[in-house]
Design brief:
The chain is mainly beta and 265 residues long. The protein is built from two helices and 16 strands. A hairpin with a 5-residue loop joins β5 and β6 (92-99).
């Protein structure tokens, strides 16, 4: 897998590799007041590429991919999170957790595939507010869906986190590489028709889809517009660089010096 990219084709966002998170250093990116990724009870999707240097071992351990979440008990501080979690001590899987619209309970959704270290995974999940459904797919495969009618909390001061879920679990920081984080809120009622299309495009036959490859029409249709979505390439060139977002140019601050890697799908 992979592709050859002309280094002179794009002014500022060529594929420079991926961002490399070291578990022992508690490295992550954070951005406050992330309204675009706190959409409440709407139709929205999430996409990311991840490569684990180590997988969680032991019940309850996890590797954080991204979250709009805080373990603090203040109201409005928890919306959603996505991580790799080891529930039984032997079978790590990808999990999504949603905080309901009433801000009273958490619901988890697990993909059945057991993940391994030293392997690239494309994770895509969605929330469909009309059909009351959550779907998760790995590596371009079919969605595993679950009924869910609890809605999603709208965080007022919730931080947006990349490489950490802040959910209070053991080892909840990422250990490995992350690339091309996308999140989009689309018009209510359109998820049923767009989920497969967006998922397949993001997977791109295992080669990953880059910002420069997404057309202007697709950005609008898929919610990658200011106030509706975010796109973090996570391919900045220098260790310690903040993560620069492409939709509105919003910066996620580097905490504890996230590294860089030439490893890509």
């Amino acid at each position: 897998m992979g592709r050859i990219i002309n280094p002179f084709a794009f002014a500022s966002s060529v594929n420079l590799g991926s961002r490399d998170f070291t578990l022992a250093n508690s490295e992550y990116f954070t951005r406050s007041l992330a309204n675009a990724v706190n959409p409440g009870n709407s139709d929205f999707w999430f996409s990311i590429w991840c490569y684990f240097d180590s997988i969680p071992s032991g019940g309850g351990n996890n590797r954080g991919l991204a979250a709009s979440w805080s373990k603090v008990s203040d109201l409005g501080d928890r919306c959603w999170l996505c991580n790799a979690v080891n529930v039984t001590g032997s079978n790590p899987i990808i999990r999504v957790m949603l905080r309901d619209a009433a801000d009273s309970a958490n619901t988890t959704f697990d993909h059945s595939t057991n993940i391994s270290a030293s392997t690239w995974y494309h994770v895509f999940w969605y929330h469909d507010s009309v059909n009351n459904e959550v779907g998760i797919a790995l590596n371009g495969g079919s969605f595993e869906t679950s009924g869910y009618s609890g809605g999603v909390n709208t965080g007022s001061i919730t931080p947006f986190l990349i490489g950490w879920t802040n959910s209070g679990g053991n080892g909840e920081y990422m250990d490995g590489q992350l690339l091309n984080l996308g999140f989009g809120q689309i018009p209510t009622g359109t998820m049923n028709s767009l989920a497969v299309t967006i998922k397949n495009a993001m997977y791109n036959s295992g080669n990953a889809l880059y910002w420069e490859d997404i057309t202007s029409t697709q950005k609008v249709d898929w919610g990658l517009t200011n106030g509706n979505g975010v796109w973090y390439p996570l391919n900045e060139e220098n260790t310690g660089d903040d993560a620069i977002e492409k939709v509105a140019g919003l910066t996620a601050t580097d905490v504890n010096t996230v590294g860089v890697s030439s490893n890509v799908p």
